Amino acid sequence: xxxxxxxxxxxxxxxxxxxxxxxxxxxxxxxxxxxxxxxxxxxxxxxxxxxxxxxxxxxxxxxxxxxxxxxxxxxxxxxxxxxxxxxxxxxxxxxxxxxxxxxxxxxxxxxxxxxxxxxxxxxxxxxxxxxxxxxxxxxxxxxxxxxxxxxxxxxxxxxxxxxxxxxxxxxxxxxxxxxxxxxxxxxxxxxxxxxxxxxxxxxxxxxxxxxxxxxxxxxxxxxxxxxxxxxxxxxxxxxxxxxxxxxxxxxxxxxxxxxxxxxxxxxxxxxxxxxxxxxxxxxxxxxxxxxxxxxxxxxxxxxxxxxxxxxxxxxxxxxxxxxxxxxxxxxx
Length: 332
Prior knowledge:
Helix 3 (46-80) packs across helix 14 (276-300) and helix 4 (92-105) runs parallel beside helix 7. By secondary structure, the protein is mostly helical. The protein has 15 helices and no strands.
């Protein structure tokens, strides 16, 4: 593992890359907006309004969602002591997605202020229930990764089937909303959504950083961690809740975006070692950068149309997943 000063330097470099990516992404799209154009534009001009009310919320949401998914994947891989643990593969994203679909299809009479929170509360509940279920099942699949993944496949299948039924009974507007949301999209970015994401994702992320040393001890096994002073059951419960907040918030605002929680933590462990005090912040920054770049491509590669960003992340993550399986099969 890198020394602490060197790790700090790399984290600062990654932070600089993230800021540069935010700047570049905010200028890219169907309508290119250069800094000089924005600087000389009238404050009430259409160009300035597009940048402030559409482009900037979009790039900030991409960074927040990418951060949440990457940190969630890191926590899950540390909690399950398994490099293939991922919110999408184990069905956690599907559980959150099913809960959001129910909230979208079944009418709830709520005040506008509470209606904004309904998808997030639903996604948190769904992701927490599936996370607890998978965690319980993992205790019966120690040393049997294939069984744990099969449980994830089964959960994905059940949730997908129920979402299919909900799509069948939905109207045209709800069906389109479910379709876009199922492929992963950041098109719903608005400042109130950004505010809610900041209030949920950032505290949950800092909460996981607080548990980084205990996550390191859990890698030794629950019994050894207990003898080293870790309250194992309480730590696991707290991490499960934080993970549910991260996944639930991300899924509720962006839909199902896969493989970021699988690829990013694994790459960061290859670069920084197994210490979660380094891996967690590195994963957070890298996840934000990756989804930000993917969303920029999604907005520009077929402009003026827009490609669902979840399709791009799947194209990146699926080959990586195949490589991980082959590598583990060979015992590398």
